[in-house]
Amino acid sequence: MFRRFSVSFFPLVVTLAAFVVMCKLGFWQLERADQKRQQIQLFSQQGEITNKAFTQLSSSQITALNGRTVNLTGRILTDKVWLLDNQTYQGKVGYSVITPVVLTGNQQRLLVNWGWIQAGKYRSELPNVQLPEKINLTGIIRTTDFEQFTLQQVPHESGWPKRVQSVSSILVSLDSTSVLPVVIYADTLEGINYPQTYKPVVMLPEKHQAYAVQWFLLALASVVVFIFASYKNGKRVQQTSKL
Fold first, then answer.
1. 95: which of 1, 37, 83, 242 fits an S-S bond (Cβ 3.0–4.6 Å)?
2. What is the pLDDT of residue 153?
3. How far apart are alpha carbons 218 and 210 in whole angstroms?
């Protein structure tokens, strides 16, 4: 009897398992695309966050603001400057400049990352940070994931500005009742010549859809490879049976 296919149990199981897993990953990416689409639509409907919003929100509600844009007015506490270490821009080493800002109207405080400043020639030289006292700022709010990998903890430095290794170390050192647990990454503003290097990791819906297509194509490819391998094996069995 002529046999075109010869199906082995183990390759069949592996192919089916791979097909199911890759299809699930494809559908998961489609779900993520739909979630991102809804999130973008929600953000566009809600608009920018202003000073007033911070007085009306609980801590859990503030956490949900992650990634939203802000338009705030306030006073910069220029006597308290943190320099976030090991930041690069255009191949140069420097710091991110972070200060507290007191919001106009409600006196709440939050941290603002103003952007990048170049480091001095020697480690002992700290840059001279120049900031205005009053400011109207726009930017992006971040409320989670402040931990970052550090090679070592530097000794506590006295005086200002202070060099730090992570944003979380600043938040830990502050009184949570007086400073909101958020960081605003300010847009590069006129008069503040510190380029903003922070880029929010936000994958657009189209990117998720592209990944979904890749997973579905891989699932299809696994089936095609299995069919082709089974066909070749069937021909080999047919030739063997003729001998």
1. 83
2. 56
3. 12
